[in-house]
Amino acid sequence: MSAVGCGRRRARVSRLVSFSATHRLHSKSLSNEENLKLFGKCNNPNGHGHNYKVVVTVQGEIDPVTGMVMNLTDLKEYMEEAIMKPLDHKNLDLDVPYFADIVSTTENVAVYIWENLQKFLPGMLQAQVYSVKIRHTNHLRQCIVNGCTRTDGNAALLHIVH
Known about the structure:
- The chain is of the alpha+beta class.
- The chain has one domain: 6-pyruvoyl tetrahydropterin synthase/QueD (Tetrahydropterin Synthase, Chain A).
- Helix content is about 25%, strand content about 30%.
- It has four helices and six strands; from the N terminus they run βαβαβααβββ.
- It has helices spanning about 30-40, 70-85, 90-95, 105-120, and strands at about 10-25, 50-60, 90, 130-135, 140-145, 160.
- Strands 3-1-2-4-5-6 form a six-stranded mixed beta sheet.
- A hairpin with a 5-residue loop joins strand 4 (about 130-135) and strand 5 (about 140-145).
- The model is unreliable at about 150-160 (pLDDT under 50).
């Protein structure tokens, strides 16, 4: 099949990393009783830990010279800077300034990773972050796509799968 008339081909590539972190689900806007009722055992004052799995997917045009959307070795380095260094073996609430006033839910961790990746990916790259998927249990996964959420029912961009 010929690509004549189709323009440059586009593709998505993904890379997985795993990190361990602890946190406590606790909102400063709620009383201790309200937090306990809302977050249950995840509101333990001593926190609790997770082994997170994060899949970052980038998309873009396939470079005709290299045959790649992005060199996966480079993506590994960006993920090291944006995810592993700030989050691995950390207390999210105490060690990551972003979570000082933001509840460290999986949704907010996904947003943090999305925003942090934007700081490390060079602007001149053809590839852009397409999605960030997080799993911290066998049953819970969060995905943020395009860096924003929508509540109008049209192609919701923050997906929660239980």
